[in-house]
Amino acid sequence: MPGPFAYFIWFVGILCEAAVLVCALKKGAFRRYLLLNLYMAGLIVVELGRYKIVSEFGLSSTQYQYFYYYSDAILTVILYFALSSLYSHVFSEMNAERYVKMGTLLLLGGTALFTYAVVQQSTARFVTHFVVDLSQNLYFVGVVLTYVLWGAILKLRETRTRLIQLVLSLGVYFSLLAANYAIRNLYPSLSHYFIPLVGVFGTFLPLAWAYAFWRLPEEARLAPSRLAVIPR
Amino acid sequence: MMAAIILVCSVVFLLQFFVSYCRSLIAASIKHPLSAEVQDVTGIKSSATGDDFARVVQLLQLCPDRPEDRSGIQAIGAYFGLLGFVRSSVARVIPSLLAWTETERGQCTYFAAVTLERRIAFSRDMFAQQLET
After folding, report:
1. In sequence order, which residues have a C-beta less than 8 Å from that of residue B85 and are 6 or more positions away?
2. Are B17 and A228 inside 8 Å of each other by CB?
3. Taking the CB of residue A60, how many other CB atoms lie within 10 A of it?
4. Which residues contact B61 (CB under 8 A, 6 or more apart)?
5. Which H or E run includes B65?
6. In this model, does residue A122 exceed pLDDT 70?
């Protein structure tokens, strides 16, 4: 069974995810950022499902392990599409939505094929290996895509503060998870310390999005050149 | 090998995203003028300095917070720590960084003061609601 700290993080996580939906609904941003909000709703459902399975079968049960990794893969794919919706927002004036959708599907297919090619050697529990590796690879693809989007924001001089903060917080979240997975692959003995961190990192994204929806009106603007690490 | 490359790239991207995210939080709050009351409490008149940050955060902890405000101040706290590290290490070798870190630390303090003002307003609202009921 998880310890009190893990339960606390779990509870805070669900609370923050619900806060995102409430803030988005109250500030009229639910439909504008529909995929982001659907991802948050999906997270709540999955977290509640995980809680139910842990309380019935325990943390080390096969049922929990399967549910955890399969639901994580589905959520990562939804988050990946949420990221593509942010691309659509940034490129909305260029009418590039069709190309963004095509690119998203192509890259998702490419990542799935790459994962398949890597995993196909392992015959035992092929599907499970595929699902776990796919979500790890998608996290890294997510980091790179968010970085490209950030570059586009700077280049196109996008000024919408809320959109900028949504993108940057997503970048922080993806990089934290990608780094966490990489450390666990490099040093499996440290997994004991790094697995619980996933829950802690998981609270960052809903908190940052709730802040962006609640505090920043859609009309708020800022100069993105001020934000670049290397001044432009 | 692949995992090592992913780790290095992720850490580099993380730093860039984190710094830009914190600066976007600061940029959004910098236009907010401080009320005379908060100026008196914090001692910040026109420009804030990094030395006041700890004191303003202590004042912040005295006020009830809201979940949606928590990530901002925690991220800025971490950014302030990162700036402190840069100031006491790299900035000793590159003096131009010293002035930059000082400005950024001052802006972190200003962000904390703006958050304090919001929390005071929130507490007042809660108190007024309690009086009404």
Report:
1. none
2. no
3. 9
4. none
5. none
6. no
**pLDDT score recorded for residue A71:** 94
Question: CB B21 to CB A171 under 8 A?
Answer: yes
| Bridge partners, residue A18, by sequence | none
Inter-residue contact B67 to A16 (CB < 8 Å): yes
| Type of residue numbered A38 | L
Q: Summarize pLDDT for A167-222 with one digit per residue, the tens.
A: 999 999 999 999 998 999 899 898 888 988 988 899 999 999 999 999 889 888 88
Which residues sit opposite A221 in a β-bridge? A160
Largest interatomic CA distance in chain A = 55
CB atoms within 10 A of CB B63: 15
Q: Where in chain B are the domains?
A: 2-132
Give the Cα separation of A176 and B67 in Å (integer). Answer: 21
Q: Is A190 left (phi over 0), alpha (psi -120 to 50) or beta?
A: alpha
Q: How many angstroms separate the first and last alpha carbons of chain B?
A: 64
**Global pTM?**
0.89
**Whether complex ipTM tops 0.95:** no
DSSP annotation string for A144-177: HHHHHHHHHHHHHT--BHHHHHHHHHHHHHHHHH
Nearest-neighbour CA in chain B from A160: distance (Å): 11
Q: Which residues of B touch A197 (CB under 8 A)?
A: none
Distance from CA of A91 to the nearest CA of B (A): 20
Fold of A4-229: Rhopdopsin 7-helix transmembrane proteins (1.20.1070)
Q: Which residue of A has its CA nearest to B20?
A: A227
Cα–Cα dist A62/A43, whole Å: 21
Q: What is the pLDDT of residue A39?
A: 97
3-state secondary structure of A222: coil
